[in-house]
Amino acid sequence: MDRFLVTGGARLAGEVSVSGAKNSVLKLMAAALLAEGTTVLTNVPDILDVTIMGEVLRRLGCDVVRGEASVSITVPAVPGHEADYELVRRIRASIAVLGPLVARCGQAKVALPGGDAIGSRGLDMHVAGLVKLGASISSEHGYLVATAPRLTGASVWLDFPSVGATENLLMAAALAKGTTVIDNAAREPEIVDLCTMLQRMGARIGGVGTSTLEVEGVERLHAVEHVTVPDRIVAGTWAVAAVMTRGDVTVLGGRPEHLEMPLDKLVQSGAEVSAVDGGFRVVMDRRPVAVDVVTLPYPGFATDFQPLFLGLNTVAEGTAMITENVFESRWMFVNELVRLGADVRTDGHHAVVRGKELLSGAPVTAHDIRAGAGLVLAGLVADGVTTVSEVHHVDRGYEGFVDKLVALGADVRRESVRPEPWEL
Ligand code: UD1
């Protein structure tokens, strides 16, 4: 029930460090299932989703130990094969255990994650791909039930370069008999990170970082140690925060080569971006200029940045058009921005944002991770206090968000809210 109280007006300045990517580490944790023994992941962010994914693995019979920025996962010779609804509905990424479990155990029963605040997020490509590899899959009582005595390599063409489907198929194909070709595969840095770890485990994968992945299946994989790739979305969040608050922020651990499109947009809006030892620096000394954004699979502009750039445009000079091509209903948070006085109109895939000099602090609600972060950044450039509720969403993806904001000079604090008697 916690909320953030954000008092606007501060200019962010200083250094902030970025840890490993949520969208990578959750899949690396699932990939550990592919090998018996202890896999150790480092540069692991201290976020709620890692805790929940750890619980998913524990219930599959793994021993999961969290250390300082690390997690060690000991997988038994025969893991369990069921991921239940209570956990899967809290963390959609747990669907990533489907591919490894079918490949390793010959069976999997994984709850359907259900609706999401940013769109329907189907699983048809995950299912169709695994069926091509020889799995039988049915939907029973809210679960996907998959069986396959031994998966067999095949050619799979994805309708869309889905991140989750590419990952599930990669992991399944790694232990399949023969060669699998995944065409129109996703190319995100997190996919490259997963490929790198799988290769270290003994997988044979060609075309890493391209849209055609060729996986020659092997009999078995072995447990490894692996360093998680830095979180480009978190790094980009700090960059946007610097620009919105007309600040000067050095993002340590962020890799500019994974952020070419968003950093270029920030330069177009008037910021100075430079590479520094171990990261990059973003300096802004004036009101940002409006920038259009069109979301696309990597290397296009990431959909996860969309709420942040939409927020930036609410205080920019001029009018911007934001086009969302990846998730059909990622506009829920627009109504929250409107509560802060933003001028935003949506129509289908598009949002038109007319910039204002200043927003006006108000109580708002976070509906997902990036929208939550976007609302906090908007609060930083609003007059008065903005109260952001349901910050458990932000906790899912941002390590020490409030502490890091405060260290950069923001006036933000976390408050626990006791439920009203009628809510109990
Ligand atoms: C991942 C990221 C998420 C990011 C997204 C796109 C994680 C934990 N989450 O989500 O932060 O915003 O990539 O970069 O890594 N789709 C189908 N059928 C399928 C699979 C996907 O229709 O079988 C659709 C989805 O509904 C969505 C689009 O394809 O509209 C993209 O989804 P996908 O790339 O799979 O995203 P996720 O892996 O869910």
Question: What can you see in these coordinates?
Answer:
Strand 8 and strand 9 form a beta hairpin. 52% of the residues are buried. The strands form seven sheets. The chain has a four-stranded mixed sheet. Strands 2-15-17-16 form a four-stranded mixed sheet. The model has no long low-confidence stretch (mean pLDDT 95). The protein has 424 residues and is α/β, with parallel strands linked by helices. It has helices spanning 22-31, 48-58, 85-88, 98-105, 124-132, 163-174, 189-201, 232-244, 260-268, 306-314, 334-339, 369-380, 392-395, 401-407, and strands at 3-7, 13-17, 37-42, 63-67, 70-75, 82-83, 107-111, 136-140, 143-147, 155-157, 179-183, 204-206, 212-216, 225-227, 248-252, 272-276, 279-283, 293-294, 319-323, 343-347, 350-354, 359-360, 363-365, 382-383, 385-389, 411-415. It is 30% helix and 26% strand. It folds into two domains: 2-18 and 230-423, Alpha-beta prism (UDP-n-acetylglucosamine1-carboxyvinyl-transferase, Chain); 22-227, Enolpyruvate transferase domain (UDP-n-acetylglucosamine1-carboxyvinyl-transferase, Chain), CATH 3.65.10.10. It is globular and about 60 Å long. Helix 1 packs parallel to helix 2, helix 1 (22-31) runs parallel beside helix 7 and helix 10 runs parallel beside helix 12. The site of uridine-diphosphate-N-acetylglucosamine has 21 residues, from helix 1, helix 5 and helix 6.
Short description:
The chain is of the alpha/beta class. 30% of the residues lie in helices and 26% in strands.
